[in-house]
Write a structure and sequence with these properties.
Isopropylmalate Dehydrogenase, two-stranded antiparallel sheet, 22% strand, 358 residues, alpha/beta, 12 helices, single chain, binds nicotinamide-adenine-dinucleotide, 10-stranded mixed β-sheet
Length: 358
């Protein structure tokens, strides 16, 4: 099997964490007999400096021509005074839009021995391994009409939460498919007791269920889901929800793990996929070999599962990370009794653990 990956390292710690993720990508691909071609393209501040645009046309064309894109991070103080449409972050938004990525996947997984990094009690977060699937291109963030105006009661602002059947169906199918690759339990989250748009959401998801007979589907109101995430996160396997609810729930789920340096993500479309750590460019630690590369490494791992359809490679990388964390930590997740290492060393340790696993 042959696959092409585009690395868009971006700014700040982006290049450092991408370099480590690349090492793991190459090592894991070699072990799996996958012939991998890696290319590079500019995005964010780095692209602005070189071309005057945060997402040059050439970068988008390259991104459309590969199987998967691995992105580091964009932004930094150097570009903070740029006009809004020429900010590094615009490059990332344009890339997501250009690749028509409508599903955002954010896993939240607690690695053994890392329960102390969470703000919740160890016994509550222990063994948590869940996936939030968020609709990314519809709902209240994009619904029309929207705006601000004046009324005889003063200023007024409004937004519209809107989904059509097709938009709900395509994200629900992603949810069912992902649940099928995990523990086969799908939790659809809505507010169907109050919102018509949620009532339609629930109807469409329910209508699809017979096509996925091996998946156990459950529905939950978003307020209850927020409670359950904090009360008993290990009860949740795959959660699918709309843009607004997913935005909030995925951040809450992410924080169960306690560290932003550990959080990977994937954004999927019909034909393209983007994998990126959740964290930003962390300019305060850029270039100091202090960044935790695991979010980027685990994002690359997700590429094996969702783009290359090689879930066992994703699992092997996750096991390697688990093994390394038992002894070594980067500064952001340092713990008593563990050796603190830098970004490069952490990447090397994961490659070694992967190799040793045979
Ligand atoms: P940030 O995620 O870059 O950093 C927040 C804090 O977490 C900092 O203390 C940082 O040192 C730490 N941190 C982040 N990633 C880490 C890692 N891998 N290892 C160790 N520590 C890590 O968020 P911010 O400071 O709000 O933003 C900095 C810049 O990044 C801004 O320009 C912002 O616009 C941009 N940003 C980009 C993205 C993206 O590219 N997806 C996301 C968020 C922010």
């Amino acid at each position: 099997m042959r696959k092409k990956v585009l690395v868009m390292a971006g700014d700040g710690i982006g290049p450092e964490v991408c370099r480590e993720a690349e090492k793991v990508l190459k090592a894991a691909a070699a072990k799996a007999g996958l012939e991998l071609t890696l290319e590079e393209a500019l995005v964010g501040g780095a692209a602005l400096d070189a071309t005057g645009h945060p997402l040059p046309e050439e970068s988008l064309v390259k991104a459309k021509g590969v199987d998967g894109v691995l992105l580091g991070a964009v932004g930094g103080p150097k570009w903070d005074r740029q006009p809004m449409d020429l900010r590094p972050e615009k490059g990332l938004l344009a890339l997501r839009e250009g690749l028509e990525l409508f599903a955002n996947l954010r896993p939240a997984r607690i690695y053994g021995g890392m329960t102390d990094a969470s703000t919740l009690k160890p016994e509550v977060v222990e063994d948590t391994d869940l996936m939030v699937v968020r609709e990314l291109t519809g709902g209240i963030y994009f619904g029309q009409p929207r705006g601000m105006g004046h009324t005889d009661r003063g200023r007024e602002a409004y937004n519209t939460m809107r989904y059509n059947e097709q938009e709900i169906e395509r994200i629900a199918r992603i949810g069912f498919d992902i649940a099928g690759k995990r523990k086969k339990r799908l939790l659809s989250v809505d507010k169907a007791n109050v919102l018509e748009v949620s009532a339609l959401w629930r109807e469409v998801v329910t209508e699809l269920a017979p096509q996925y007979p091996d998946i156990q589907l459950e529905h939950m109101y978003v307020d209850n889901a927020a409670m359950q995430l904090i009360r008993a996160p290990k009860m949740i396997d795959t959660l699918v929800t709309s843009n607004l609810f997913g935005d909030i729930l995925s951040d809450a789920a992410a924080m169960l793990t306690g560290s932003i340096g550990m959080l990977p993500s994937a954004s999927l479309g019909k034909t393209h996929a983007l994998y990126e750590p959740v964290h930003g460019s962390a300019p305060n630690i850029a270039g100091l070999d202090l960044a935790n590369p695991l979010a980027a490494i685990l994002s690359a791992a997700m590429m094996f599962r969702y783009t290359f359809d090689l879930p066992r490679v994703d699992e092997a990388i996750n096991r390697a990370v688990q093994t390394v964390l038992a002894e070594y930590r980067t500064a952001d997740i340092a713990a008593p009794g563990k050796t603190t290492v830098g970004c490069i060393h952490m990447g090397d340790l994961v490659v070694q653990a992967l190799d040793k696993a045979g």
